[in-house]
Amino acid sequence: MAKHATPKLDQLESGPWPSFVSDIKQEAESRAKNPKGLDYQIPVDCPEDLLGVLELSYNDGETHWKHGGIVGVFGYGGGVIGRYCDQPEKFPGVAHFHTVRLNQPSGKYYTSEYLRALCDIWDLRGSGLTNMHGSTGDIVLLGTTTPQLEEIFWEVTHNLNTDLGGSGSNLRTPADCLGETRCEYACYDTSALAFEMTNEYQDELHRPAFPYKFKFKFDGCPNGCVAAIARSDFSVIGTWKDSIKIDQAAVKAYVAGEFKPNAGAHSGRDWGKFDLVKEVVELCPSEAITWDGAKLTIDRKECVRCMHCINTMPRALRIGDERGASILCGAKAPILDGAQMSSLVVPFVEAQSPFDEIKEVVENIWDWWMEEGKNRERLGETMKRLSLQKLLEVTGQPADPRHVMEPRHNPYIFFKEEEVPGGWDRDITEYRKRHLR
Amino acid sequence: MAFISSGYNPAKPMEGRITDIGPRDYNDFLPPVIAKNKGKWAYHEILEPGVLVHVAESGDKVFTVRVGAARLMSVTHIREICEIADKHCGGHLRFTTRNNVEFMVDDESKLAGLKADLASRKFAGGSNKFPIGGTGAGISNIVHTQGWVHCHTPATDASGPVKAIMDTVFDDFQNMRMPAPVRIALACCLNMCGAVHCSDIGVVGIHRKPPMIDHEWTDQLCEIPLAVASCPTAAVRPTKVEIGDKKVNSIAIKNERCMYCGNCYTMCPALPISDGEGDGLLIMVGGKVSNRISQPMFSKVVVAYIPNEMPRWPSLTEKIKHIIEVYAANARKYERLGEWADRIGWEKFFELTGLEFTHHLIDDFRDPAYYTWRQSTQFKF
Ligand code: HEM
Ligand code: HEM
Ligand code: HEM
Ligand code: HEM
Ligand code: SF4
Ligand code: SF4
Ligand code: SF4
Ligand code: SF4
Questions:
Q1: Looking at the structure, do residues B203 and B287 belong to the same domain, yes or no?
Q2: Architecture of domain A171-184+193-230+326-403
Q3: Under a CB-based contact definition with an 8 Å cutoff, are residues A93 and A46 in contact?
Q4: Mind telling me how many Å the CA of A429 is from chain B's nearest CA?
C-alpha cells in the first residue's frame, strides 16, 4: 500500500511512453521489499515521499523545494546540488534531497558491470533515483542526505575510479558527440578531446575560480549532435579544408534508387523517387554542386561544409582528409542579456592529441575573462560588452571576413591611436591658426 | 538504520582522499566492434525506425537499437538495462545526447531477439519500458529539466509535461514521416537549462506576477546588490522599509518594469515568485543547431501563455500536436520547421496554424527588438 495517495500522478502511468511514475513506484516497492537485505542509509520511503511531494505540487501548481542549498565535499567547491523540502514534516523521506553530479565517460558508453557497481552504491546511500543524464552530461544521482555525501564520494573515487562533475562558477562537465566511435562524419576524435580537456582542467572544474560558469562541448562535425554551438561557452566543431570525396558509382546507385537517400531517414512517407537535382543540387546553400546526368562535381572553393549533401548521400560523399575543427565562443541561455549562440573565433584549428592548439585558445580566453569578466557575466556577455575585436586580440586571431555574417552598418568606429597619423594629442591653438574663431 | 562507513574517516577528512581523477576512460567501455573500427566507419543506414547499421571499412558491422527512456530513472530500471545488455550485447550499452538508450550488436542474427525482448517489456501501469524509435525524420526524446522533482525556481513541471507530450506524439517516435527531424525540448523556467532556445519546438515555464518581497529577511538572506544586478530590466532597487517599529534594508520592485523572469529570486531567497494560477508555459518554434542548409536558428515565441493543467497538460499537448501536423502537411522534404516558417513568412505560419497573434509576441527587449519588426513593405495579406 503506497504511503501517499497520488491520484493525479497515477494518470501519468497510462499511455505508451515510459512512465517515470511507474518507475519510481517500482523503486519504492523494491526498497520496501528490500530483497538484498540492505541497511538503507537514507529513509527507505524516500521515493514514496518524492511522489507525495510531487503530487502536492500537482495540486498547488507550485514547487515545494526550498531555495538553494549549499552542501558538498571537502576539497571541492562544487559537484553537489543541495536541496531541502519545504514540507519536511509531511515528507521526511525527502527533507534532504541533494543531487550528486558524477562525471560521465565520453560518448556515454558503459559496461553493465560499471553501472551495476554504481547502482549498488546509490541503492545503499541514496534514493535509488537518477537522471541519465543531466543536460550538461553528468550522471545525476537524485536525492540523498548530507552525511552520505562524503561516503558516496569516498566510494566512487576509491571503488569506481570516478570523480564528481562540476557546478557553480567554474568549468562545468564537458561533453561530446559520439564522434569517431560510431560516425563516419567525425572530423576529429571528440571522445579523446573531451577526455583530455576534462583531465587537463580538473582544478578549474572542481574549484570555482571564474566570474561565472563555463562550458565546453565537442561536436565532430557541423551536424551538432551535442549542440555545442548552442550549449557551450567554448564550442569545438569538426570540419575539413580539402574537397568532399565523391564516389561516382555510388552517386549513380542513389540516382538509380539502389541506395536510399539520407540513409532511409524519410522512409515513413512516400516522397517519390530520389531526385538528385531537387534534393541535393538545388538545396546546396552555396550552389556549389553540379550534376551533368553522369558526373557529380563540387566546387570546393564555394562549399560552406553545411553537411547537407553528405547527409543525403552518405555512401557516395565523404568528408575531406585535411581535417580539424572550428572554435566558436559565447553561447548561453537568455539570462541576463538574451540568448546567444557561439560566434566563430578560430575558423580552423588542428585537432590532434594532445590538442595543444585548442588548449592555448582556451587559456588565452580564460586569462582575459577571469580578469575582465564581471561578477556573473558569461563569456558571451563579456564579448558583447568588450567587443569581438577584444576577444580576437587576446586569442591572437587577425580579423578576417569569416568572423562576421556582415560588416557593421553603423559608422561608429573606434581606431587605435597608433593607426592614425599624428596621434590624438592635438593643440587647439595650432588649429586656430588655420581656422579663425 | 545503522550507519555504514565507506572507509571515510570524518575525524581525518583529508586522509586517503582521492581528488581530480575525472571521468573514467571511455576506452574501458567500448564494445569490441567499436574499439576495433573507431575512426574507420564507411557509411550507415537506418534499417527501420530505431534501428541503425554502421559499416566499417573492414566490412565489420554494428547494429544499433535505440530505445526511449524517461531520463528520470531508478536503479531497478538501470539494472534491467544492464540485464538486457548482458543477454544480447556482451554487457555493453550507451546513452545518447537526447537521453535515449542504445543497445549494439555486431551481427544481424542477434537483432531480432534483442528487438523482441525490448518490445515485450512493460511497466506495471502498462507503458513501454523500452520503446524502439527516435531515428531519422521523426520525433525523438524531449530534452528536459528538473521541474517540481528537484528545482526551486520552476514555473512548471518537467517530467509530467514531457510524458504527456511524448504520449501524444508517440507514433512519430516510432515513425519517420516528417519532412525533417522535429526536436522538442522543455525547460521549467527562463534559465532554459537544456535546449529550448534552439529547438524546433520549445516549451518554457513562465511566471506572470512580480515576486513577493519577504522584507523581514531580505537583508538577512540576500546580498542586495546582487539582486539589483540580476534584473534584466532594472526593476529592482534597494530601499528601506518599516516593519513594526524597525527600519530594515530591503528591496523595492517596480511592478510595471518587471517581466517576471524570476532571476532575482535565483539570487535572493527572499523574493519568491511562483504562483499556482499565474504560472504556466509558453511555446517557441523554429530553432535548430545543425548547420545543414541553413545556419543555426533560435526558436521564437508563438504562444505566449498556456496554463498549467496537471497532470496531463491537455491544452499544451493539443497545440504542439497541431503545430506538428500543419508543419508535416506543408513543409518540403529536408525542411526544418524554422526554415519552413521563414520561407512562407511568419504571417503565413500564423494563418496556417490558426494560432492567435497577440501583442506579447512582438519583441520589446532593448535595441535588438527593432530588428525583429518589419522594415519592408513585403508582406502577405
Ligand atoms: C541554501 C542554499 C542554496 C542552495 C541549496 C542553492 C542551490 C543552488 C543550486 C543547486 C544551483 C544550481 C547550480 C548549477 O547550475 O550548477 C544554484 C544556483 C544558483 N544559486 Fe543557489 N543555492 C543556495 C543559496 C543561494 C544563495 C544564498 C544565493 C544568493 C544569494 C544563491 C544564488 C544562486 C545563483 C545566482 C545561482 C545560479 C548559479 C549559476 O547560474 O551558475 N543561491 N543554487
Ligand atoms: C537555480 C537553480 C538551478 C538548477 C537546480 C539547475 C539545474 C540544472 C541541471 C540539473 C542541469 C544539468 C546539469 C548536468 O548535466 O550536470 C542544468 C543545466 C543547465 N543550466 Fe541550470 N540550473 C539552475 C540554474 C541555472 C541558471 C541560473 C541558468 C542560466 C541563467 C541555467 C542554465 C542552464 C543551462 C543553459 C543548462 C544546460 C547546459 C547544457 O545544455 O549543457 N541554470 N541546470
Ligand atoms: C553558510 C553560508 C554560505 C555558504 C556555505 C555559501 C556557499 C555558496 C556556494 C557553494 C555557492 C555556489 C553555488 C552554486 O552556484 O552552485 C554560493 C553562491 C553564492 N552565495 Fe553563498 N554561501 C553562504 C552564504 C551566503 C550569503 C549569506 C550570501 C549573501 C548574503 C551568499 C551569496 C551568494 C551568492 C550571491 C552566490 C552566487 C555567486 C555567483 O554565482 O556568482 N551566500 N554560496
Ligand atoms: C549638418 C548636417 C546635415 C546636412 C547639412 C545635410 C544636408 C543634406 C542635403 C543638402 C541633402 C540633399 C537634400 C536634397 O536632395 O534636397 C541631404 C540628404 C540626405 N541626408 Fe543629410 N544633412 C545633414 C545631416 C544628415 C544626417 C544626420 C542624416 C542621417 C542620420 C542625413 C541623411 C540624409 C539622407 C538619407 C539624405 C538623402 C535623402 C534622399 O535620399 O533623398 N543627413 N542632406
Ligand atoms: S556531430 Fe557529426 S560527427 Fe558527431 S555524431 Fe553528429 S554527425 Fe557524427
Ligand atoms: S556540404 Fe553543403 S555547401 Fe558543401 S557542397 Fe554539400 S550541400 Fe553544398
Ligand atoms: S529550467 Fe529553471 S526551473 Fe528548470 S531546472 Fe533549470 S533552473 Fe530549474
Ligand atoms: S522577476 Fe525578473 S524582471 Fe522581475 S524584478 Fe525580478 S529580476 Fe527583475
A1: yes
A2: 2-Layer Sandwich (3.30)
A3: yes
A4: 41
Instruction: Name every residue whose Cβ is closer than 8 Å to that of residue B170 and which is 6 or more positions away in sequence.
Output: A15, A16, A17, B131
Residue A321 has pLDDT above 70, yes or no: yes
- At residue A1, the pLDDT reads 56
Q: What is the dihedral of CA B183, B184, B185, B186, to 10 degrees?
A: 180
From B151, B224, B226, the mutation candidate for ligand 3 (largest count of ligand atoms within 8 A of CB) is B226
Of A226, A337, A341, the CB nearest to B97: A226
Question: For B349-373, what is the mean pLDDT?
Answer: 97
Percent of chain B with pLDDT over 70: 100
The shares of helix, strand and coil residues in chain B, as percent rounded to the nearest 5, are 30, 20, 50
Torsion of CA B253, B259, B260, B261, to 10 degrees: -110
**pLDDT one-digit tens code per residue, A244-297:** 999 999 999 999 999 999 999 999 999 999 999 999 999 999 999 999 999 999
ipTM of the predicted structure?
A: 0.97
When pLDDT is averaged across residues B148-165 and rounded to a whole number, the result is 98
Helix, strand and coil percent figures for chain A, each rounded to 5? 35, 15, 50
* Rg of chain B, C-alpha, whole Å: 25
Residue A320: all three cell numbers together: 575531406
Protein residue with its CA nearest to atom 5 in ligand 1: A69
Q: State the DSSP H helix or E strand holding residue A297, giving kind and residue range, or none if neither.
A: strand A296-298
For chain B, the domain total comes to 3
Name the residue among B22, B28, B161 with its Cα closest to residue B92.
B28
Cell 518581497 -> residue: B213
pLDDT single digits (tens) B304-339: 999 999 999 999 999 999 999 999 999 999 999 999
Q: Within 10 A of B12 (CB to CB), how many other CB atoms are there?
A: 9
Q: How far is the CA of B202 from the centre of ligand 6 (A)?
A: 28
What Cα–Cα distance (Å) separates residue A261 from each residue in A424, B136, B364?
A: 62, 11, 43
pLDDT computed for residue A117 by the predictor: 98
Residue B92 domain-assigned (yes or no): yes
Q: Is residue B304 part of a domain?
A: yes
Q: Which residue of B has its CA nearest to A319?
A: B42
**What residue ranges in chain B does DSSP mark as E strands?**
41-48, 51-56, 61-67, 72-74, 92-95, 101-105, 184-187, 201-206, 236-243, 246-253, 280-285, 300-307
Contact A172, A137 (CB under 8 A): no
Split at pLDDT 50, 70, 90, the class of A2 is confident
CATH class for domain A7-160? alpha beta
B181 and B288, same domain (yes or no): yes
Q: Which residues line ligand 2 (CB under 6 A)?
A: A 81, 101, 134-138, 165, 173, 215, 231, 333, 335; B 146, 151, 153, 191-194, 266
Report the alpha-carbon distance of residue B267 to residue B282 in Å, rounded.
23
pLDDT in tens, A364-422: 999 999 999 999 999 999 999 999 999 999 999 999 999 999 999 999 999 999 999 99
pLDDT tens track for B235-246: 999 999 999 999
Using a 10 angstrom Cβ sphere, with 0-12 exposed, 13-18 middle and 19 or more buried, the burial of residue B315 is middle
Q: B84's torsion region: left (phi>0), alpha (psi -120 to 50) or beta?
A: alpha
CB B278 within 8 A of CB A212: no
Which one of A38, A41, A62 would you mutate to disrupt binding with B, by most B Cβ within 10 Å of its Cβ?
A: A62
